[in-house]
Write a structure and sequence with these properties.
This protein has 5 helices and 9 strands. The protein is α/β, with parallel strands linked by helices. A hairpin with a 2-residue loop joins β2 and β3. α1 crosses α5, α2 crosses α4 and α3 packs across α5. The chain is globular, with a radius of gyration of 15 Å.
């Protein structure tokens, strides 16, 4: 099975992004999965064209986009992407949309087509902190998640798709803030990918 995994470049003045650091360390194969990776810009205008180009190159059967959520303490498997852009901070191009749709006239929301509950259970079984999340926010992460699922729904793509939010790395966060070690994030992504080969979506 061909798989595409994406991470984001650093944003908000940071020098690294936990999602990209983890994606860069994924092996080329995980069991029967052939892993392709891509870097997405933290940009409302450039992220979806970059994602679509990566999908065209990899021709994946499964796509997992990974993003950093600095306030979260667990690996958050996202269930819902919403058709809203509302930025608390500017993206890397200085754009800061408020109350605008990802896709004008698009559905209000899309659900992930990965087995989200099974993924969370598999992460817990490996003693990793994990949660089923019902909100991917309204920044570029949600923008990409919604765009991914809209591509699948409207362009005839056969891939299954989803989104994983990861905590910051220890070297990024101030004292007392939630973090997760890089090797644990990488292990978590691998577990989500392996679980995503299951037939059940729930």
């Amino acid at each position: 099975m061909r798989v595409l995994v994406t991470g984001f470049d650093p944003f908000g003045g940071e020098r690294i992004n936990a999602s990209l650091e983890a994606v860069r360390r994924l092996p080329a194969r995980i069991g029967t999965l052939e892993i392709a990776t891509a870097t997405l810009p933290t940009s409302y205008s450039r992220s979806l064209p970059a994602l679509e180009a990566a999908i065209a190159r990899a021709r994946p059967e499964l796509v997992l986009c990974v993003g950093q959520a600095g306030e979260r303490a667990a690996l958050c498997v996202e269930r819902v992407a919403v058709n809203v852009q509302d930025a608390r901070i500017p993206d890397n191009d200085g754009a800061q949309p408020a109350d605008t749709p990802v896709v004008a006239g698009g559905p209000a929301a899309y659900l992930a087509t990965l087995p989200v509950r099974a993924a969370v259970a598999a992460l817990h079984a490996e003693a990793l902190p994990a949660e089923l999340s019902m909100s991917a926010g309204t920044f570029v992460c949600n923008h990409v998640f919604y765009g991914l699922m809209h591509l699948a729904a409207t362009r005839g793509h056969a891939f299954r798709g989803g989104f994983l939010h990861v905590p910051c790395l220890p070297q990024q966060a101030p004292a007392g803030a939630p973090t997760l070690a890089l090797e644990e994030i990488v292990r978590g992504i691998c577990i989500v990918l392996e679980t995503a080969t299951l037939d059940t979506v729930a």
